[in-house]
């Protein structure tokens, strides 16, 4: 793994973080499934329109989330065709793990839990304890590390098999 991978991961993380913030600014209810357990039951379920819009945002987000590390590892393989699987895996994992780390520390802990901006608070849930649940976000970070490992392995495996 190189500094170029870290830089690529930081830029990709900025793009993904901006997308998440744009989604919450547009309508925080679009992220309802990610809100704390005590907050979700305090608001009505998503409308059909909100479910459709969530699906559209999710397609864009997931395409970038997995497309960015894939594109980076393909670029590395093009530059050095003999890169072994473990190097491809490590680079894909790094891009995913760095985003997971930024999501946890910056978006979840700093913005959501510590600052708790008004635009992220669902109407009728002001002051609920879930907004300060740092543990929930840490558990999400740990789950994200597992997913980063699996996705990194898949991306590394697929890329190692490409005839570039």
Give a nutshell description of this structure.
With 164 residues, the chain is mainly α.
Please explain how this structure is put together.
This protein has helices at 3-26, 48-79, 85-115, 134-161. With 164 residues, the chain is an all-alpha fold. The chain has one domain (3-161). The mean pLDDT is 97.
Q: Which helices and strands occur, and which strands form pairs?
A:
Layout: H1 3-26, H2 48-79, H3 85-115, H4 134-161
Tally of helical runs: 4
Strand content: under 5%
Low-confidence stretches: none
The helix content, as a percent range, equals over 70%
Please give the largest β-sheet: none
- How many β strands by DSSP? 0
Structural class: mainly alpha
Cα shape: elongated
Chain-averaged pLDDT: 97
* Helix/strand order: HHHH
Specify Rg, calculated over alpha carbons: 18 Å
The number of domains: 1
Euclidean distance between termini CA atoms: 20 Å
As an assembly, this protein is single chain
Keywords:
164 residues; 70% helix; elongated; mainly alpha
């Amino acid at each position: 793994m190189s500094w170029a991978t870290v830089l690529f991961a930081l830029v990709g993380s900025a793009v993904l973080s901006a997308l998440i913030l744009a989604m919450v600014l547009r309508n925080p209810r679009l992220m309802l499934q990610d809100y704390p357990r005590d907050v979700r039951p305090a608001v009505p379920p998503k409308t059909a329109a909100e479910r459709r819009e969530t699906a559209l945002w999710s397609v864009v987000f997931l395409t970038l989330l997995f497309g960015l590390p894939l594109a980076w590892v393909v670029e590395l393989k093009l530059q050095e065709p003999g890169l072994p699987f473990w190097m491809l895996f490590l680079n894909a994992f790094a891009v995913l793990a760095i985003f997971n780390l930024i999501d946890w520390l910056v978006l979840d802990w700093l913005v959501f839990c510590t600052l708790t901006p008004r635009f992220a608070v669902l109407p009728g849930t002001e002051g609920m304890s879930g907004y300060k649940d740092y543990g929930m976000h840490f558990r999400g970070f740990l789950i994200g590390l597992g997913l980063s490992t699996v996705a990194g392995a898949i991306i590394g495996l697929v890329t190692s098999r490409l005839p570039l």
